[in-house]
Predict the 3D structure of the following.
Amino acid sequence: MKKRVGIIGGGASGLVAAIGAARNGAEVTVIEHMDRVGKKILSTGNGRGNLTNYKMEEDCYRCGRKDFPMQVIRGFDVKETLDLFMGLGIVPKDRNGYVYPNSDQAASVLDVLRTELERLKVRILLSCQIEKIEKKKNGGFLVHTDQGKVETDALILAAGSKAAPSTGSDGSGYEYARQLGHSVIKPLPALVQLRCQGNLYKQMAGIRTEAEVRLQADGITLASDRGELQITDYGLSGIPIFQVSRYAARALD
């Protein structure tokens, strides 16, 4: 009898997990509360589909557990990522260390993932709302949805964060995690622009300049970074701002 695997969330991670499980002989069901899978994939790389990056060292990441990002990356590295997509029919191209599909279209990435899901006969429930999740006494899970019950031997939670409600990442995954007995670290914004007070920024909006950014709170420097700073009508943006924004969010909280 095939192992039944349920996956909550039809984004990039959920779809790749579904492919992996199905290739290993499982009967897979993906539960997605939007009307289609992979919506957020279409916005990656400004619509060009940034598949991965060649530069993935420890200092590229900000995390409360310093060793955690590299543990994840070593578990499925750049070569394995590219092998997966090339096997699905994507020809990658390198642009200064950032890897895109040769088509420069994020839609082509979603197309090959969906084609492989169809080939593997993965069941996908769209516009499907989860009501509750039960752990069964004899092992496995029972997922109650508005489209009926889904019984599984294993359950993968790939629901995303709450960063982009319009693409499906509305924070509902945190509640599912709690129902399953996990603790949730308070979600705070990261890799975002910073809104600033005052009217000065509107007068300078559009200016871009190479700069070093230092974030201070109570006279203590929390983080710094260098790169192209962008001044906008609401405040500050650009890569160095994104890099320090996590620390700003925590300090404000």
In short: The first strand starts at residue 4 and ends at 8. The chain has a mean pLDDT of 94. The chain has seven helices and 14 strands. Helices lie at 12-23, 68-75, 78-88, 106-119, 172-179, 200-204, 239-252.
